[in-house]
Nucleotidyltransferase domain-containing protein (Paenibacillus radicis), 371 residues
Amino acid sequence: MVDVFEVAKIIIDRIKAHYPQDIAIVGYYGSYLQGRATERSDLDFFFIPATPRGREVELQFIIEGISFDFWPIPWDRAERMAALEDWKTTIIADCELLYVRSPDDLARFMELRETAAALHSPSHTLRLIQQAETTLGNCFINLAKLRLPASPKDLSYCRVQAQEIVTSLLEAFCFLNQVYYTRGWGHYREQIRKLPIKPTQLEKHLDTIMFSPSRDDILHACEQLTVDTLRLIAERRKNVEETRSYQDRLKGYYEEERGMMNKLLTACEKGDYETAFFVAIGVHDGLARMLYFAEKGSWPSSLDSGEYRAYYERFGYPNLISLLSPTDFEPLRLAVLALIDKLEGHLQAEGLVLHQFDSVAQFGSFVLSRH
């Protein structure tokens, strides 16, 4: 059996002799650290370069049939790992250090560990929910690939896409539960069982994905898991404390958006349907998103299927999109005027000061008064 730590010593001796200022940290993780190593296990080790020259020590090699990968993790990626922006957090949080260049490097590394230890904090909840949403978006791409008429229909292709979907879902569960996995492939399920936030039919669907010879059954299981996870994300979002603020979040919005409303009015007056089509939808949907942001303190999810529009409807703003017509522009024009009046009143009632002036001279006086 290969003495993997003797292998590591050879590399570290080389670092000390030829790269003492170029490598900040060397550490190892995985099976040897967790007491699970077998006769075929390599040493999962990495280094953090301190200089560009430090990357020269990267090395992949095989000894007695055992493969080794001494790979670099730049400081910026280590920071992402610690913050669960890269889901291999365990590499930073749980590794054993073999070499440290200086006390400053050690202090910087221990700060990363403190970041990882604080992932359960409510201050990280919304950010991690948003990461779960982004990750889940990959599932819809893979599902679309399976659904496209021109996609390969063989089982192997289906399993490739299904494996990518499962990988994205595993990441999403990490983010939703504000935890990280400590073990890799073949050991995720035992860790997922302990998570409080997960689909109720997860085990059943995973079995179908891994064991079923039916392409249709695998696709159905992937779809169900994706939909169930989307529901969990929506529920998790609802439980996040809402912080309402118009004065901070909508400051300057109206002054900027009024230009698009004017463009829409001009399009209506000129009978320019193409401009009206794009601008009306943009103004309507943009305001709906802004209202959601002002009321809840976060932007609508990238996977939101339109729930954010509820605030637009609740406040009684005119439905510009429904009024689009290539033959009759007057209802839309009147609705834009009503929107301008209603929005100004709404924002002023919320305490916003709108920078509107009746003349250039009035604006000049305003600018001078600010100094």
The CA atoms of residues 124 and 178 lie 8 Å apart. The longest strand covers residues 23-29. The domain at 4-117 is CATH 3.30.460.10 (Beta Polymerase; domain 2). The two ends are 77 Å apart (CA to CA).
